[in-house]
Amino acid sequence: MSGSRQRCASCGHELSETDPQLRCPACQGLLEIHHARPTLSGAALRARFDERRSVSRGALASGVWRFREAVLPTAADAVVTYPEGNPPLLDGPAVARWTGLSQLLLKHEGHNPTGSFKDRGMTVAVTQARRVGAPALACASTGNTGAALAAYASLAGLPALVMVPRGQVALGKLAQTLAYGARTLLVRGNFDECLELAEQARAKLGLYLVNSINPFRIEGQKTIVLELLQQLNWSPPEWIVLPAGNLGNTAAFGKALGEARAWGLITRMPRLAAVQAAGAAPFAASFREGFARRHRVDPHTAATAINIGNPASYERAVRAIRETNGVVTAVSDEEIFEAKAVVDAAGVGCEPASAASVAGVRQLLHSGVIDPGQLVVAVLTGHLLKDPDSVTRYHQAADPRPPGANPPVEIGPTLSDVERELRACGAV
Ligand code: F0G
Known about the structure:
- The chain has 428 residues and is an alpha/beta fold.
- The protein is 39% helix and 14% strand.
- The chain has a domain at 89-115 and 217-390: Rossmann fold (3-Layer(aba) Sandwich), CATH 3.40.50.1100.
- It is globular and about 70 Å long.
- Ligand F0G binds next to α5, α9 and α13.
């Protein structure tokens, strides 16, 4: 296939693949990567992707770069890769039962190198940063993008600035960002303000911004969908359900599905369900009005990863929902944490924002949008250990005691105490 172009999603203005501008110079719209249609048939492309599953070293061992024809075809020799991707597609019977489905598959993106799906976008954005000779990298983040940037900037040997809302970042994410060596800025403001600041820093200080408004991030995150389709032998599920915050992932999923169908990788389109936290649900509000207008809110949810009130990829995500006949919904923090306790107790585990997808499945089933017999894949976006405070808080809460709480028990150093606890957990 020949080269890829960057194209403005609003006015169609085109830029070359290596133009470092982040927004359209004509209208300030967001850019998208437009790939030429591969010369291979869908079957031949599937076969090529499938052959690469046996590669164990180098870029093609990555669950992102295995799909390089759909990501960044010209960059495969100089990529900054861990490698990432390849997390499991789990069968979650206990989680399925809780939602009311007969079967629920869980695509666990928390098994990426830094514990979230952000690694998939970051390998591509940092590779592109190196291709265009960027001197320094930056992002605004609720935590995971920052952790991923910190790691990949170190792999690339580039300096990085990470801007996070002070006091609103989960402990594991902050720890990673510090440990991987990024300059970590605790901004006295929320995520939306961090992103505004990061965009100003890009424009005025020449930093290369790797938030999901960067179109190369989207190309990497598309591979969540490509990989799960591959894990299902290219037979699509009825639904793909994901948590939604800044809407980069929703946009990436829509683009992946559109291309997969246009290129003959699949013949049927799954429906997308984007799930927001009720306290940070501007996209769900717009959906309820048929996307008549864009909403902005002052966000408040304990699922800090998706505590976002003015999602940057709004337009791209609207298209993703429309083109997949998708839906957008919102779930309460109580539902999110109950779903998380179920996912955790099943031995799977995830961070709070990830559990929004599972809570969303249950709600959509109860409201009759999803049928109990349909094949549903819920995406778990981050690892349980990202937010350890939320876990101990939940399980030790006393009044009221939350469903599924498993508080620790203090005992004396005696065998009789151990025996009593053994009886209490039903083992004897
Ligand atoms: N789940 C997790 C664990 C996240 O970290 C994020 C976003 C999302 C879901 C939502 O994805 O923004 O593409 O709609 N985290 C960003 C960050 C904002 O800075 O780490 P989205």
